[in-house]
Amino acid sequence: MDLYLLLAFVPAALALNLTPGADMMFCLGQGLRSGVKPAVAASAGISAGALVHMTLGGLGLGALVATLPWVFDLIRWIGVGYLMWLAYAALRSSVVANKTKALSAKRAFVQGFIVNLSNPKVILFVLAFVPQFVDPTRGSVLLQFWMFGGIIALGGFVINGLVGIFASSIGQALLGSPKYAKGLGYITAAIFASLAARLAILERS
Fold it and tell me: What is the DSSP code (8-state) at residue 203?
């Protein structure tokens, strides 16, 4: 990989990671709801999902999402349904048990992975952004996608994880009061529902 190309890519990837988006908000919600370990696990799941998107982009399969509207919409509505289910689960655990039920790190990882994977806008971004730095004359295109994807995934893991850790400190403080703990469940459900709404109105362009 060309050193100057890499030096140009890293700041661009960092700017991408620092931009608030669905992944960051999801880790924020997990941190508020479940604490440090699940928040970090959710961030890891999101990064794993990003690597899958990079693989699809490198293989050329991501072009299906860009060219076939029904594939884009299918993935999008799966994501909407899953986020609404997460919102319902957070709300129900808060109302029924009068407290916010924490997730295990394993479940948080799976949820983060699915949330990222079911966001078709990510693969469209991959197809628009990463190819600018890929040079077919320098070897395997897929390997280059993986290398650039690894940089984005690592940066995202650190930044989203830190957001989740910060949120967990607030969440744990609020959990000391049953009243605030119940409100925390409403806040978490609202975050997931807003992400679902955002994905529902998402357009391909």
Answer: -
